[in-house]
Amino acid sequence: MKKQKKNKVAYLPTDFAKEQYATYAKQKRQVIFRRRRLAVICTVGIVAFISIGYSLARDYARLATLNTYKQETLVEQKQVNKEVKQLKADVTLLENDDYVAKLARSRYFYSKDGEINFKIPDSDSQSPTESSDK
Predict the structure, then answer these.
(1) What is the DSSP string of the chain?
(2) What residues have CB less than 8 Å from 112, skipping those under 6 apart?
(3) What pTM was computed for the model?
(4) Mean pLDDT, the chain, integer
(5) Conformational region of residue 18, where left means phi above 0, alpha means psi within -120 to 50, and beta covers everything else
């Protein structure tokens, strides 16, 4: 068993002592109230900080994804612009009657009256019997 300490100071039930004990109890209640209020404020602050931090992290990840998508789209746009430019050049060439006639003769072996077409292999291409160590 624990030994209880005996209080060597005796309580005197005077008006002043009662007033001092009441003041002390009131101050103790105020300290407890202030600590609880501080705990609630800190808890609310921490919850707000965590929710804002989570939102910022999610937005940053989404921004990174959108930037990646933007870069891919810009590369694709450059390719499409090159293709459009080439197609416009092809349209310009196809408006020329001499070019269309030459193209028809080379690709589809059309010929003018009295003309004979011969297919000659390109000098750049190698036949399967040629060796590749030239």
Answers:
(1) -PPPPPPSSPP---HHHHHHHHHHHHHHHHHHHHHHHHHHHHHHHHHHHHHHHHHHHHHHHHHHHHHHHHHHHHHHHHHHHHHHHHHHHHHHHHT-HHHHHHHHHHHH----TT--------SSSPPTTS-S--
(2) 105
(3) 0.47
(4) 85
(5) alpha
